[in-house]
Amino acid sequence: MIMFLLVVLFVIVGDFIDAIPAIIIFMPIINKLAEVGGINPVHMGVVIITVLVFGLITPPYGLSLLVAAKYVGVPFGRALVRSLPLYVVFFFTIAFTVLAPKVVLWLPKQFLPESVGCFKSPTGAGYICPP
User: Fold this and answer.
1) Mean local confidence (pLDDT), 26-48
2) Which helix (H) or strand (E) holds 41?
3) How much is the pLDDT for 65?
4) CA 57 from chain center: how many Å?
């Protein structure tokens, strides 16, 4: 439930604030909520970044969509209508990142096991990871 509430919050925040300032402003809240909810911080970070990237193509801020529309010479309203299928793809991607933490954390677990809560085995061979 915490993740879905943060997704809603950051969809709104991402519409008005760029990703870097939003992360700087809200990071203490995100960290505390992840800690209270027992959510892996790496998983939370992936979800928040995915949601904030969605904000780059949604109005009123929509910087990437504004730049793309200007670059190709298409009116912003037409670019907005044409990007609606992309919004659906983003919502499915966001839902997937929220609902499938094992898939999202698979790659970090392979390359940086300590980042997802694994610790070195006492025998010295490999890592022991929580379920």
Assistant:
1) 90
2) helix 41-54
3) 85
4) 14
DSSP 124: S
Dihedral of CA 95/97/98/101: which sign?
A: positive
Is the CB of residue 87 less than 8 Å from the CB of residue 44?
A: no
Phi, psi values for residue 45, rounded to 5°: -65, -40
Q: How many residues does the chain have?
A: 131
Task: Please check whether residue 79 is in contact with residue 68, taking contact to mean a CB–CB distance below 8 angstroms.
Answer: yes
DSSP 8-state assignment for residue 19: H
- pLDDT reading at 131 higher than 80: no
The percent helix, strand, coil of the chain (3-state, each to 5) is 75, 5, 20
Q: Mean pLDDT for the chain?
A: 87
The token pair that represents 36 in the structure block: 């209270």
Q: Which helix (H) or strand (E) holds 15?
A: helix 2-16
Strands (E), the chain: 119-120, 127-128
Place 17 in a pLDDT band, splitting at 50, 70 and 90.
confident
Q: Count how many Cα atoms sit within 13 Å of the Cα of residue 23 in the half-sphere of its side chain.
A: 14
